[in-house]
Design a protein that fits this description.
This protein is of the alpha+beta class. It is built from 4 helices and 14 strands.
Length: 247
């Protein structure tokens, strides 16, 4: 008569163990998956990405003004031909910026003051690899050139094994026109959230056929000031997009 409670206790413990087994097995599987991804898959993937394009080795992080003052941060890296990059942005609503000439300088000043649109308004020169940007694009916001999304691109000297070029980009948002805090010159002031502009570029390129959208962590500083003295902040990630060389 006294053995029944003990048998009941044993059966309850066994049932509890049976219920816990799937949970324990699931936790073990998650742990194994995390180890594989974190320590094997992702490191190999990054090595493969860097191997595909050598421009990622010893990469720069900041542009500079013509006076050597630190400029806008680099936050975009695109593997594409010039045609793929240009067509992708144009189809997404970006306009190639006009060159800075006396005529374009007068026009942007007049259109900003009179609140007239100028979709191809020029952008100032920033320098990387000892030269100013190779390409510049903007996406207008509002009625005049005072506010706009814009990005500058510099072509890297390296190509990958398939001959694909790469482009370093600095994407920022012009929020207003004013005087530079460093030189006193008339300039655009940027929004501090440079990550939002990085993400906009990646989204637009992905919508136009770019594959392999990804991020490299710990690439950029958490923040700083650009050539006009405007503060900027970042999560430090470099946004990357790659086009298919066969397209």
């Amino acid at each position: 008569m006294s053995a029944a409670p003990e048998s009941s206790h044993v059966s309850k413990a066994g049932a509890r163990t049976l219920r816990l087994r799937p949970i324990i097995a699931g936790l073990v599987a998650l742990l194994v998956a995390w180890v594989v991804v974190a320590y094997l898959v992702l490191p190999d993937w990054w090595k493969g990405f860097e191997k595909r394009h050598p421009a990622l080795s010893d990469a720069p992080t900041l542009t500079a003004t013509s006076s050597g003052i630190p400029g806008d941060p680099l936050n975009v890296f695109v593997i594409a031909t010039q045609e793929q990059l240009t067509q992708g942005l144009v189809k997404a609503g970006w306009y190639p910026a006009d060159r800075i000439t006396l005529e374009s300088s007068i026009r942007i000043a007049e259109d900003s003051a009179l609140h007239r649109s100028y979709d191809e308004a020029p952008v100032s020169a920033l320098f990387l690899f000892g030269r100013k940007q190779d390409l510049a694009f903007e996406k207008p916001v509002g009625k005049d050139p005072r506010e706009r999304h814009h990005v500058r691109f510099w072509k890297a000297s390296e190509v990958d094994d398939e001959g694909m070029p790469a482009w370093w980009g600095a994407a920022t948002y012009d929020r207003s026109v004013g005087f530079s805090h460093t030189t006193g010159e008339v300039t655009h002031h940027i929004s501090p959230d440079v990550d939002a502009e990085r993400n906009l570029i990646l989204d637009d390129l992905q919508a136009q056929g770019a594959a392999g959208i990804s991020f490299q962590d710990a690439f950029q500083k958490a923040g700083g000031r650009n050539g006009g003295g405007d503060p900027w902040r970042s999560d430090g990630r470099l946004g990357m997009a790659e086009f298919d060389p066969a397209r």
